[in-house]
Every structure is written in C-alpha cells, then in structure tokens.
Amino acid sequence: MKIYKVDKTLVSTNRIAMMEHKPLLVVREKDGGTPQVAVDPVGCKPGDWVICCGSSAARDATGVKGYPSDLTIVGIIDKWEVPQDADTTS
Amino acid sequence: MKIYKVDKTLVSTNRIAMMEHKPLLVVREKDGGTPQVAVDPVGCKPGDWVICCGSSAARDATGVKGYPSDLTIVGIIDKWEVPQDADTTS
Amino acid sequence: MKIYKVDKTLVSTNRIAMMEHKPLLVVREKDGGTPQVAVDPVGCKPGDWVICCGSSAARDATGVKGYPSDLTIVGIIDKWEVPQDADTTS
Amino acid sequence: MKIYKVDKTLVSTNRIAMMEHKPLLVVREKDGGTPQVAVDPVGCKPGDWVICCGSSAARDATGVKGYPSDLTIVGIIDKWEVPQDADTTS
Amino acid sequence: MKIYKVDKTLVSTNRIAMMEHKPLLVVREKDGGTPQVAVDPVGCKPGDWVICCGSSAARDATGVKGYPSDLTIVGIIDKWEVPQDADTTS
C-alpha cells in the first residue's frame, strides 16, 4: 500500500453507474505530487494522511463487491512524519 | 484512478474480436505526455478531462463482462485545474 | 493500453509448457526504448505500431483461457504519428 | 517480488474492518527511499530485509482469503548485501 | 513480459508456507539494475537471460495453482543481444 495526503473531493459530471455510490477524493503522495483519485469508504477530510490499496484488492476494499476501483483508502494514519525527500511547502 | 485528458479517437486496422464493441481513445496525463489508449464507455470528446480506472477493475468498468481492457474511462471531470507541474502549451 | 512498435520475433530455448502455443514478439514504446515481450494473437510484423493490453486482461486477450501473459497485442494501428518526444532515428 | 527493508510499525487511527487482523509495516526499497506499507504475516522486526509480493498474489499471501493487500511480506532474507546503488547512510 | 538476467539464488530464512516449494532467483533488467526476485519453475542458472511474467498471470505460471508470485520466469532466451542502453560492465 502507498501513503497519500488527501487534497480535496473530486466532482465529476458524468460517472459510470457502477461508481455512483462512493465519494472520490483527489490524493497526492506529497504536496505538489501528481494527483490521483481514490475511492473513500472510510470518511477522510482534506489534509489527512491515508493508506491506499491498489491492484485488484482495491475493489473489495471499497466494501462493495465488484466496485470498479484501482485505488481505495483503507486507513487513516494517526501521525505521519513527512519523509525528508517530500515537499513540505504547503 | 488517474486523471487524463482526451486527445483523439484511435483508429486501428485490426483488433481482436473481443475488443470490437467499444470506442478506443488516445489519452494523456498532460499535454505532450505519453499517449495511452483507454476504452470509453462514457462518451467523451477531445479535450475532456477524465478519470480512468486501471488494473483488473478496468475490465468490468467497460460494462462488458470480460472485456480485455487495462484502462477504462469511468467519469468526466466537471472542472479540472491543470496542476502546476503540467505542460499547458497546447 | 499502451502503444508499442514491433521489433522482432523472440526466440526462447525453453518455455514453460503453458506458453508454447503463441508467438512472442519483442516490442518497444519507441525506437531504442526498453524491450518488452508481448504475446501476439493478431499476426503482426516488425515495424507495426500495436496496442498492447496488460494487467489481468492480457490473459484472456490471448484467446486462450488462462494463458500466462501480462502483455498481449490486441490491435494494429492503421496510421500512427510518432509523438514528438519519441526517438525517430531508426 | 521486490526486496525491502523494514522501517517500523505503522499506526493507523481508523482502518477498514477487513484490515484489522494483521500488522502493517512501513518498508522502503533502500534507506531514504519512498515509504510503502506492507502486510506482515511472517513476523518481522525493524532492519530486516524482506521479500514482498505485490499484485493480486499479495492477497492470498496474507494467509487470510480476500484480505485487501497489494503488498505482503512473504519471506525474510538471511543475508542481504545492499546493492552498490543503494544509500547506506543509516 | 520483461527480460531479465539471472543473478543468483536467493536464500531466505523464513518464508510463508505457501512459497516453500519453488526456487527464488535474484534477477535484474540489466547488470547493476535493481534486484528483483522471481520464482523459477524452468531451471535457470546465473547469467541466463530470461522472460518473466508479472501481474496475476505470474501465479499460474509457476505451475502451482494459487502460488503467491508476482514475477515468474516463463522462458529462457537463446541468444540475447544486450540493448545499447544497458550496462555491460560486469
């Protein structure tokens, strides 16, 4: 699993029907990193550091069998020290 | 899921039979980025910013059980601010 | 799916039995790029630009249930303009 | 499989229910490398060099059918010479 | 599939029970490249150039249903010319 910081909620105009039941969040490995989109079954808020599961396990981790996710939040980290190589400008 | 910009429709001379029922689009993570090919079950047009699902979930997300996709568009983003590190020259 | 150029046929001395029934081609994302090996159920020739499917979908895309592939050619592209960032020296 | 060095135990405030039964460790490919999170069914301690399995195989490797992992420790390496390109400052 | 050179046998002190029945080899994409660990159901020796299958197909390719592998050797290449960009110093 990788560690991401929650950036914000993602608003999409038109999703496939299978995706309609879960919030999608924009997450980044570090501030300024490439944005990715994760399914959030945990209930996170911007600024949280979270553990995300990818690969085929991301599907069941949503709690909905067969949900089409390749990145799902599976936990919130209590205290996370940003690694030295990460950007800490925000 | 990752975020891509739709570039154009991809025309292929000869596809395997399993792939014949869905449009294929060329998508890029940013203008000038490496082109990838995504299955489009949503109905996108060039210039749209879209959410794409990879891994094994890309298959069912096409809406056709067992479709051989490793990248499928699952949503169109309403408004997307291009991240600062992306190329915006086009 | 990603786009590759077919380089040549790959000859292997000793394959696992499950792999014996399909041709393997060396493909590259661009001239001079890292060589990868794709299963070819379509019938390609060197110089063709092809669409390759990875992940778990690469298996069924071979046309043989349970074939052990992680990269399978699923279509030949009619006309492909090499992106500007690609090496065109060959 | 890739080779990682165990850094420390990861404490998360709120995990999905499916993840509650196994310890999670922070692992890195080399000292100072990007931290990743692996499920540990073997029983490792900080400083151990371990083999981690990703992809869909990471799930069953936890020993719990359907566990939502994309990175699971599957073995401890007896003696591992750090490759020359790795950082050895710690 | 990717192409690797076999480096050496990997000795691990403690493996999960599911992994005990197959040899593990350290492989590299080129001399000096990052070491990875592949399951070897073919019978390779150090110096061999091999084809490795990843993703979910790596599991069945071991010949043991449900084996927890994400990288499995599926063939030995007869003659492999090292690409120009590879390090040939060893």
Written description of the protein model:
The structure is a homopentamer of 90-residue chains. The first copy, chain A, is mainly beta and 90 residues long. The first copy, chain A, has one helix spanning 57-60, and strands at 2-9, 12-15, 24-28, 36-39, 49-54, 71-77. Chain A has a 5-stranded antiparallel beta sheet with strand order 4-3-1-5-6. In chain A, β3 (24-28) and β4 form a beta hairpin. Mean pLDDT of chain A is 89; it is low at 86-90. The interface between A and B is medium-sized, with 27 and 27 residues. β6 (71-77) of chain D pairs antiparallel with β2 (12-15) of chain E, so a sheet runs across the interface. Chains A, B, C, D, E: Its main location: other. Chains A, B, C, D, E: Keywords: Bacterial microcompartment, Carbon dioxide fixation, Carboxysome. Chains A, B, C, D, E: InterPro entries: CsoS4A, EutN_CcmL, EutN_CcmL_sf. Chains A, B, C, D, E: One of its GO terms (biological process) is carbon fixation.
